[in-house]
Amino acid sequence: MLLDNIRQENDIKNLNEEDLALLAKEIREFLIEKISVTGGHLGSNLGAVELTMALHLALNLPEDKIIWDVGHQSYTHKLLTGRRSGFDTLRKYGGMSGFPKRRESECDAFDTGHSSTSISAGLGLVKARDLNGEKHLVVSVIGDGSLTGGMAYEALNNAARLDSNYIIVLNDNNMSISENVGGVSKYLNNVRTADGYLDLRDGVYNTLKDMPKYGNQMVKFIRRAKNSVKQLVIPGMFFEDMGITYLGPVDGHDIGQMVRVFNVAKRVKKAVLVHVMTQKGKGYLPAERHPARFHGAEPFEVETGLPAHPRTKANYTDIFSTVMTKLGQRNEKVVAITAAMPDGTGLKRFRNMYPERFFDVGIAEEHAVTFAAGLAAGGMKPIVAIYSSFLQRAYDQILHDVCIQNLPVVFAIDRAGLVGSDGETHQGIFDLSYLSSIPNMHIMAPKNKWELSDMMKFAIGFGAPIAVRYPRGEAYDGLKEHRKPIVYGKSEWIYEEGDICLLAVGSMVKTACQVREQLKEKGYSCSLINARFVKPLDEDTIESAYDAHKLFVSMEENVASGGYGEKVREFLDRKKWGKAFLSIAIPDAYVEHGNVELLRQEIAIDADSVTKRIIDEYSRL
Fold first, then answer.
1. 112 CB-near residues (< 8 Å, 6+ apart)
2. For residues 352 and 349, what is the distance between their CA atoms, to the nearest angstrom?
């Protein structure tokens, strides 16, 4: 195998040119085999194999720097930098990350996980290089889906002022997670060809400059007139008009062509964008046919592409999807907004049933929130469905555009809490903290699948900003008999006994039931309250539990700082009751990738760990 010859960075340069196509084939087979076992981002990586190989042939790593936007397409990069053995532990606890990590390799220039960041980061590395008097190359690889994010244009605006080399590679596969939408996608679809433009331009200018007497005047005249001509013949005028040289489009599966263009781009003494056309999922028919399904794939059968372990129970996203279709049917004012994730957030069915009331704004969370604010101000009932870790990108819009005006926007926050294999950049462990700091915001968390349905119905009729946060994974179907109506700001007594009082938020109610059973087996009396509302805090229910309990324990799948437990502690301190209190929450740290159950054990929020901590605390009373 040619892959056996790739042991470290730059080893690819030792291969013969005629061997490169075979290496690409071997890489695809390797990725399909490994990801079918571990799960991971398959489609984006299959589409970027030749692109990555061409970059490694044109650059010298780790001296030259590659910044991968989002970073989920960096698997081939990891292979070519000697991390082949790490794929057996890909995305597992203690194993290799599915994203670039500087702590993993010198060849990973910047940690990424969210979209639209690579141009800003790359520009920073360029300016640091120039200020340090260094000469290495900096390349940012960004997808066409990420170009719907406003941060990319903020960076392009600054990059246009550069007077030194900076290469931006636009990996255009007409996809983000789902199919791209909007004007940027339409513009890129109209792009055809600009091959040889830079060489032609430089050749003409240099020839004219060498002409005696009138050469420089002719160059100035052509530069003044060129834009009107280029509008007719050069497809990259959008970038050229910003002051960024455009090269392409280039076949993203033709290694030789890409290497030649990258070598041309290295000569440009300013920002240059190379437009590369690729196919997401290339080389694996199921991924080519269903690129959205193979964006972030669970383990699958290689022969069919079908899941290796099909789900037998509904997850919370499924429940949300069903509720949304019912809400849309009952109320014509209900509209749904997502940021490039109709499938991931469960809005695909709503889109199919009510296309005129569904809005996919692309990877643009800030715009999604302010757009929803405008819809609410116009009398609609917007529901914004975004993952917890992505919603944090729109903090200012939630505060400034929704909550100051007290507009009735519903935030359906999927993947709240630990999400597992994608690691630090995707764990949804901050939303209770960043949302509860905002006046006029209200926050709920359901204990099970029925309560999610009830909370969504409550939220749509609430009349003020409100968030419903729910976890990734199988929807809890326990405690079905406990389905009291949702009352604003009120918690729910599930078990009322004495001594120890568990105050659990959302997904931690299931854990609290397990903890309670373990405590009772050891002879402790234990009550359980389902918080339901994180904001406002139900002070009355906590006060009603005061006399019968010696120890209060809050339980949440959120960081401790700014979370529910902090609010309970502050209330108890304010009352000066002197009651013992224990906060069960995620430590003030980023949580790495790994199986969720293992992560819960590592950070001591699983049932066994919580029970032990409670007994230790109670023994000190």
1. 67, 68, 69, 70, 71, 99, 100, 118, 121, 425
2. 5
Predicted confidence at residue 168, as pLDDT, reads: 97
What would the DSSP string read from start to end of 326-377? Answer: HHHHH-TTEEEEESS-TTTTT-HHHHHH-GGGEEE--S-HHHHHHHHHHHHH
Non-local CB neighbours of 286 within 8 Å, separated by 6+ positions = 293, 294, 300, 304, 305
- Per the residue annotation, which of 230, 282, 293, 393 is the catalytic one? 393
Residues 6 or more apart whose Cβ sits within 8 Å of residue 237: 227, 230, 231, 246
**Counting runs of H as helices and runs of E as strands, what totals does the chain give?**
24, 17
Residue 567 a catalytic site member: no
HSE-up of 305 (CA within 13 Å, CB side)?
A: 17
- Which of 447, 515, 513 lies closest to 476 in space, CA to CA? 447
pLDDT in tens, 62-99: 999 999 999 999 999 999 999 999 999 999 999 999 99
Q: How far apart are CA 160 and CA 268, in angstroms?
A: 13
Of 280, 449, 472, 567, which is the active-site residue? Answer: 280
Q: What is the pLDDT of residue 192?
A: 32
Of 335, 274, 288, 315, nearest to 51 by C-alpha is 274
Contacts of 492 (CB under 8 A, 6+ apart): 447, 482, 484, 529, 530, 532
Neighbour count for residue 369 (Cβ, 10 Å): 28
Catalytic residue, candidates 26, 50, 240, 365:
365
Hey, which bits of 71-162 come out as E strands?
138-143
Residue 524: per-residue pLDDT: 96
Catalytic residue check, 449: no
What's the rounded Cα separation, in Å, for the pair 139 and 122?
7
φ/ψ region of 185 (left if φ > 0, alpha if ψ in -120 to 50, else beta) reads alpha
Instruction: Give the predicted TM-score (pTM) of the model.
Output: 0.88
User: What would you measure as the largest C-alpha separation in the chain, in angstroms?
Assistant: 101
Burial of 471 from C-beta contacts in 10 A (0-12 / 13-18 / 19+): buried
Q: Compute the radius of gyration of the chain from its Cα atoms.
A: 27
Alpha carbon distances (Å) from 16 to 2, 9, 20, 218, 481 = 11, 16, 7, 45, 68
Q: Is the pLDDT of residue 186 over 70?
A: no
pLDDT of residue 441: 98
Least confident span in 233-237, 416-420, 492-496: 233-237
Residues contacting 352, CB < 8 A, separation 6+: none
CA distances from 150 to 126, 251, 309, 390 (A): 21, 27, 38, 14
Q: Is 393 a catalytic residue?
A: yes
For 231-252, write each residue's pLDDT tens digit: 434 557 889 988 999 998 999 9
Distance set, CA 525 to CA 222, 336, 500, 616 (Å)? 87, 45, 6, 15
AA letter at 462: F
In one-letter notation, the amino acid at residue 47 is G
What distance in Å separates the CA atoms of residue 541 and residue 579, rounded to the nearest whole number?
15
Could you tell me if 12 and 79 are in contact, meaning their C-beta atoms sit under 8 angstroms apart?
Answer: no
